[in-house]
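Exercise: predict the fold of this chain.
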Amino acid sequence: MFKLSFFINPMGCVRMTQRGKFIKPNAQRYLSYKSFLQISARQQLKSKQPLKGALDVHIVFSMPIPKSWSNKRKCEVVGRYHTKKPDTDNLVKGVFDSLNKIAWEDDNQVAKVTAVKIYSEHPGIDVTVRELK
């Protein structure tokens, strides 16, 4: 079992190309996001080998609170579920793709996934990985 923490605004997976061309300007931003997750994961795992076998992954996405909200509203939502975009499945895909060959050989090893999006004053991603017997 191991835990990884990333101090970055969570970003959902984006469609990279259409007919071989980038279709959205945030595609480049997404590549930088994945690169950050990969570098950070390598630093945290140091020389550990990628896990093999079935895995249970729990992810908590701490989503930023909009700056335009009042202080009262900000205080009310801290720790509550985030029900806006990006979609949870796109957030998970971004993390899984980033951790291939680093935390595990391939994301097809993940047999059980739990993912939660909550509002937080400190955006980030916490990933817990356990081997299933």
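Check your answer against the key: DSSP finds three helices and six strands in the chain.
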